[in-house]
Amino acid sequence: MKAILKLRGRYVILSLIFLVLGFLISYSYQLTKEKNSNQTLSTEQWDEEYETRSLLIEEEKTNKTLQEELYKKQEEVKKIEESLKSEKQVYYNLVEDVEKYRMYVGDLPVKGKGVEISLEDASYVPDSENVNNYIVHESHIFKVINELYISGADAISINGQRLSSNSYIFCNGPVITVDGNQFPAPFVISAIGDPSVLIPALNIVGGVIDQLTYDNIVVSVQEKDEIKMDPLLQEQKTSS
């Protein structure tokens, strides 16, 4: 009986040993399997991450290339804009020049600040003197006109007769003829321009006013806030 019990005890102990051993083997197998599974998953994740990073690197390279192309295009556009700006300025200057030349030749009406110079014959002529030495001649008028143009006058008229580039003036006794129209004294020369420049130019020591006074001509100069001049008629410019 005791031998049977001992035998059974051994079987029980062996059974327990085999049970524990089976559990350990099973646990070890599961742990190894999970470990291998985790390692496989990590490799797949790494591959996906590597692929994603590669795509990002390629995108960055593409973006860099596009950015460089964009900078080049922007530089080209900037150069074109600067060129157009320069051309626009050139065209603007040309338009200004055309308007200025049209004003000079009398195609356009003009108005603006200016000066008015009046030339009169001497009020007193000594009996022993030649009367021609005391009257206004075309040379006197030319001196005034030339000085005004040199000083920057935009337009000039004589007794309301606007001058053009083809105008002619000559003296005929007590009257002067301007482009075929006769005018008696006093001769009023109107000039559109900056009075602060024109008046000092006329009054400079030894200048036009001094020369006219020396020739016994009565001269007066007035600053005008506004002087108006009509355009020349085509037939007037043609005939002149």
From TrEMBL:
Asked if Ribonucleoprotein is a keyword of the record, the answer is no
Keyword match Transmembrane: yes
Membrane-spanning parts: 12-29
Coiled coil location = 56-83
**Which keywords label this protein?**
Coiled coil, Membrane, Transmembrane, Transmembrane helix
Highest taxon above the source species: Bacteria
Family listed:
Belongs to the UPF0749 family.
Protein name (database record): Uncharacterized protein YlxW (UPF0749 family)
Which species expresses this protein natively? Metabacillus niabensis
Lineage per the UniProt record: Bacteria, Bacillati, Bacillota, Bacilli, Bacillales
